[in-house]
Amino acid sequence: MSSEAENAWCMVLESTSEAETQALGHRIGAVFRGGEVVGLVGPLGAGKTQLAKGLATGLGVADSGQVNSPTFVLVNEYTGRLNIHHLDVYRLSGVAELEALGFDEMCSDGAVVIVEWADRVRPALGGDALWVELSPIGATRRRMALRTRCASIQERLIAAGLDPKE
Ligand SMILES: Nc1ncnc2c1ncn2[C@@H]1O[C@H](COP(=O)(O)OP(=O)(O)O)[C@@H](O)[C@H]1O
Ligand SMILES: [Mg+2]
């Protein structure tokens, strides 16, 4: 990880199944209050979309079946207790194209913003983003490194019992 999240606070979680990744996402999404920007990083098949499904149900989206990679539409919108903008920037040329989609407005309208392949537009996410780097470490094992400079998010994740050291 580099730039924005470099040297930031880090919490490492591990998942051994798709369901566990969704469950962890649910617990993370449950601590959001609106305005959070989440950058998901990791190779194809790492579990970014599975984690996004969990984040959405943690935000009160009843049907996680509607949460899919917005690879072609670029952005999906869901509504739970908060609105969610779910982006996949794999096909974007860079930050300028993201700005043209109205990204700044998405980040300032009180919704939660989830960005797959966020490392491709890293500077756009801002200094308070929550970065989640997913690394496959086996057929069904995933390491998830959560990094953020935002003290409030750090505190809420720990308060939710997500600290693996506890
Ligand atoms: N522990 C795990 N967490 C998440 N997905 C897993 C896990 N183990 C296996 N998988 C599989 O890996 C794939 C992840 O796909 P997806 O979430 O779409 O990845 P990405 O969005 O990063 O490309 C799914 O087919 C899922 O069933
Ligand atoms: Mg995906």
Brief descriptors of the model:
single chain; seven-stranded mixed β-sheet; Rossmann fold; 166 residues; globular; binds adenosine-5'-diphosphate; binds magnesium ion
Give the secondary structure arrangement, pairings included.
Blueprint: E1 9-15, H1 18-29, E2 37-41, H2 48-58, E3 75-79, E4 83-88, H3 95-100, H4 103-106, E5 112-116, E6 130-136, E7 142-148, H5 151-159
Parallel strand pairs: 2-5, 2-6, 4-5
Antiparallel strand pairs: 1-7, 3-4, 6-7
Helix pairs in contact: 1-2
The protein binds adenosine-5'-diphosphate (ADP) and magnesium ion.
Residues 48-49, 69, 88, 116 line the site of magnesium ion.
Question: How does this model look, in words?
Answer:
It is a single chain. This protein is of the alpha/beta class and 166 residues long. The chain has a single domain, classed as Rossmann fold, CATH 3.40.50. It contains 5 helices and 7 strands. The chain is globular. The chain starts with 8 loop residues before the first strand and ends in a 7-residue tail after the last helix. The protein binds adenosine-5'-diphosphate and magnesium ion. The site of adenosine-5'-diphosphate has 18 residues, from α1 and α2.
